[in-house]
Amino acid sequence: MTRVGTIGNRLLATLPPADFDLLAPALETIALDQDAVISREGDPVDHVLFPHSGAISLMVGFADGQTAATAVVGREGAIGTLSVFGPAPSGLTAIVRAAGLASRIPAPRFHAAFSQSSAIRCAIQIHVRAMLVQLQRSGACNALHPAQARMARWLLHIRDRMDGDVLPLTQEALSQILGVRRTTVTLLMRNLRAAGAIRSERRGHIEIDRSKLVAAACECHGTMRLELEEVFSMNTTRSGPPDGAGVSA
Fold first, then answer.
1. In terms of residue numbers, what domain contains 170?
2. pLDDT in tens, 212-230
3. Within this chain, do residues 93 and 19 fall inside the same structural domain, yes or no?
4. Same domain for 68 and 10?
5. 227 forms bridges with which residues in the sheet?
6. Would you say 127 and 81 are in contact if contact means Cβ atoms under 8 Å apart?
7. pTM attached to this predicted model
8. Which of 24, 25, 38, 123 could bridge to 94 as Cys pair (CB 3.0-4.6 Å)?
9. By the 8 A CB rule, do 4 and 12 touch?
10. Number of domains in the chain
């Protein structure tokens, strides 16, 4: 297994070598394919996933078929870690929005290492706090801020976890993330193009102007970034993550 400095997952980067070695024999590197469903709401949690590139949205589904995103996870986080608190099905559906790579470990092996290592428990505490920042802010944002500002925010969240300004998103994916109709997404895209925040759009690819998109977004994007960095700076057990392991600028 490649050392965590090369892998680039920020949670794994907090672990001292001896604690990382509790996980290393069971970790495997897998591809995160575009639009792949990592886990479904109600399914058992079989694996814990540590992305080191790409972006995964966490989705809530409703009885009428509508969906909405509650958070985005990239190289700063993990999928499935809450299973350490007891056997329970997945509470959310996790969908890959930008392809990448991840380290995966069977849930029982991760649970065993969690019970042995205070550093791993601290890493999960960091993750839980970071997720609460997103969930709490997203809930308030969805209730109070207009759809166009929220779309800009979600585009920025995904951009933060990528290395370029071309986002691999369809209007259908944005409709699912925002919880609005496709016709609404089309109108919002038109408005953002007129403002220069979206430079171009072709099916499955949206090129953004990050600075103009920041101006179009609500305050929540910047607030979440700052709060996330505060969580890591207060809790990391090493001097810092390896280059490229955090949320990008």
1. 143-220
2. 999 999 999 999 988 888 8
3. yes
4. yes
5. none
6. yes
7. 0.88
8. 38
9. yes
10. 2
